């Protein structure tokens, strides 16, 4: 009764298409909301996974690359920058520096003009050159394929290392960027996760190992195009039935 009174005290959100006076619609939303709240975490993960397996079975990175070296460079450049901008920039880099060896010999003056349109070009220029030198000196010119080894490279944090190992080697690692962090929290896949690492640990605990690499692409693309930060497109989302965030915005004063 209290929940019913709460709903009837406010206008319903425009996304529902219901009116405040529509009692049957209100009762439907109350039961819908209650069902979502009572759903177990395992059930929530199961339904999210089933949805994406059906609707996004071929999800993959939007960064253009042909080999581990190119992906690593692209991911380093993508920090706080769009994949679209990175894809516009990397062809010129790979034409002049086609492999890790040539990049290790690049000077700042040679590389900087090629990435000056990318965010933080000064730091990223230094990171790329020093990364390449370290790969040549300590890994025999081969891109390492473990998270811990990758994180030894300049410009490579945990997220970048997780991306490279999951995309190239299908390792069960979950890169958590702002999109993944947001979508996981809104759907209720993560609970009280304050950091990307905390979110990562919760996600890999509940997602089957053989789906973790795919799940990263599901969440990031969903966050990039549907569950956007400021104005999520809930009317285009097939997960509203289990989305905790959606049920907090069903009503508005």
CATH architecture of the domain at 68-169: Orthogonal Bundle
CATH topology of the domain at 68-169: Endonuclease III, domain 1
Low-confidence stretches: 1-21, 23-28
The sequence of SSEs as H and E is HEHHHHHHHHHHHHHE
Query: Using only CA atoms, what is the Rg?
Result: 22 Å
Helix content: 55-70%
The whole-number mean of residue pLDDT values reads 88
**How many distinct beta strands?**
2
What is the structure about, briefly put?
59% of the residues lie in helices and 2% in strands. The chain has helices spanning 2-8, 23-38, 41-55, 68-77, 83-96, 100-104, 108-115, 121-138, 147-150, 158-169, 178-187, 196-206, 212-225, 244-248, and strands spanning 11-12, 251-252.
Could you characterize the architecture of this molecule?
- This protein has a two-stranded antiparallel ribbon with strand order 1-2.
- It is mostly helical and 253 residues long.
- Among the domains are: 1-38, no CATH class; 68-169, Endonuclease III, domain 1.
- The longest helix has 18 residues, at 121-138.
- Helix 4 (68-77) packs antiparallel against helix 10 (158-169), helix 11 (178-187) crosses helix 12 and helix 11 (178-187) crosses helix 13 (212-225).
- The chain has helices spanning 2-8, 23-38, 41-55, 68-77, 83-96, 100-104, 108-115, 121-138, 147-150, 158-169, 178-187, 196-206, 212-225, 244-248; strands at 11-12, 251-252.
- It is elongated and about 60 Å long.
């Amino acid at each position: 009764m209290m929940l019913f009174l709460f709903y009837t005290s406010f206008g319903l959100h425009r996304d529902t298409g219901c009116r405040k006076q529509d009692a049957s619609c209100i009762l439907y939303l109350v039961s819908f909301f209650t069902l979502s709240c009572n759903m177990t975490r395992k059930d929530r993960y199961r339904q999210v996974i089933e949805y994406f397996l059906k609707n996004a079975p071929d999800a993959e990175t939007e960064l253009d690359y042909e080999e581990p070296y190119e992906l690593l460079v692209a991911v380093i450049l993508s920090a706080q920058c769009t994949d679209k901008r990175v894809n516009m920039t990397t062809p010129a880099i790979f034409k002049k520096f086609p492999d890790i060896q040539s990049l290790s010999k690049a000077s700042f003056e040679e590389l900087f003009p090629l990435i000056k349109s990318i965010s933080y070009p000064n730091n990223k220029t230094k990171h790329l050159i020093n990364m390449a030198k370290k790969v040549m000196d300590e890994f025999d010119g081969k891109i390492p394929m473990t998270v811990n080894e990758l994180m030894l490279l300049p410009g490579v944090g945990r997220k970048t290392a997780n991306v490279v190992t999951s995309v190239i080697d299908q390792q069960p690692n979950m890169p958590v960027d702002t999109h993944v962090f947001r979508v996981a929290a809104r759907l209720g896949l993560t609970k009280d996760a304050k950091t990307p690492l905390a979110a990562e640990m919760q996600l890999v605990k509940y997602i089957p190992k053989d789906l973790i690499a795919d799940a990263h692409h599901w969440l990031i693309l969903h966050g990039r195009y549907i569950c956007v930060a400021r104005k999520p497109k809930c009317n285009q989302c097939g997960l509203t039935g289990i989305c905790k965030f959606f049920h907090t915005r069903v009503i508005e004063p």
